Amino acid sequence: MVNSGMLFLWCYDGQWWQQVVLRLIFFCLFALGCSSPQQKKVLFTEVIDGQKVQVVDEKGIRGLYFGTALQSRMFLNDKNYGKGDYPDYYHLAKVLNPNLRSVFEIGMGGGTLAKAFLKEYPSIQYTSVEIDGLTARLARDYFHLKNLKRHNIIVADGRSALEADKSSYGAIFIDAYMPFGNRTYIPSHLVTKEFFQMVKRHLNPDGILMINVVDSRPEVSQVLVSKVSHTINSVFPQVFHIRTSYRNQRIIVGSPGFKDHKTLFEKRALELQSGNTILSYATLLKNMEPWQSKNGEVFVDRQFPKEPQPLTKQILIPTSNGSDQSFPAE
Question: Could you state, in order of their start, the residue ranges of all structural domains in the chain?
């Protein structure tokens, strides 16, 4: 603490430059006192099953946290789009399938994808499945997810909801992670061959699958991306990888197959760009490339318990001695 009385006496008896120093000290103290509370603001907090759920504003970003694990985020100065963040790459669905009229999403979170697609494409019908009812409520209360007739929200397990659904879709998006320890993981039942076969049955002939695959540890991410890619390729004839700004992340695309896809996609991207959009489809397209590999492991249902479990490091790399819980949160 600064003794203001001593500073005052020092200034009163001192020279003019001491008064300047004093004013600078008081200014800095005032600025620090005013700015600190604005750095982090907790908007919501609740403890559920021993885990703290929070909505926090910090440095221009609103985040939904389960414990220390970030579930969803929103830039406060732009409520519908990320700033080159990975959700933007899902818009390549319109390049891959220009006839896109309907989307089925597993893992709504704060509604980032739903908000962007409903705003960008007025004719699209959008279904979101979110396993956690509280998350769905917080998306409306704190992440500006509007009530729209074109948006159907289902609170249920994603695989069960898709299995019960009788419709077909132009795209199925998967961005679902379950908290475990201080991390989040892809649930095992959303990456098996049987699940992707179900996905394909719910797609139109020109429909596509897009799934977000990420882990902060390079050795885990590499194995996870490889195994999920091989599994998707066992069902879909053509697979693409989309590189995001985060090196340990890929959005994996399962498609019905395209001939001369590079020229075709570039043409479609230019056509989309002529519309009223802030997205640069051509720029996004530069990060998508075909993926090809042989003789890789394929995930199947019988490998896992009936109840969904997190795909931890021990499951992906059985020889690993490290504990997932010992790593810091992303």
Answer: 80-324
R_g (Cα) of the chain, nearest Å:
24
Q: How confident is the model at residue 79 (pLDDT cuts 50, 70, 90)?
A: low
For the chain, the straight-line distance linking the first and the last C-alpha, in angstroms and rounded, comes to 35
Instruction: Give the helix/strand (H/E) hosting 301.
Output: none
With 0.90 as the threshold, say if the pTM is over it: no
pLDDT in tens, 116-156: 999 999 999 999 999 999 999 999 999 999 999 999 999 99
Distance CA 150, CA 98 (A): 19
* Percent of the chain that is helix, strand, coil (3-state, to 5): 40, 25, 35
Q: How far apart are CA 214 and CA 65, in angstroms?
A: 17
Q: Tell me: the pLDDT tens digits for 2-56?
A: 444 433 333 445 554 455 444 554 454 445 444 444 589 999 999 987 889 999 9
Residues 6+ apart with CB under 8 A from 145: 110, 111, 114, 115, 139
- Spatial distance between the Cα atoms of 67 and 182, rounded to a whole number of angstroms: 7
Tell me which of 3.40.50.150, 3.90.79.10, 3.30.230.10, 3.30.160.40 is the CATH number of domain 80-324. 3.40.50.150
The residues with which 46 forms a beta bridge, in sequence order, are 53
Q: Report the alpha-carbon distance of residue 320 to residue 330 in Å, rounded.
A: 20
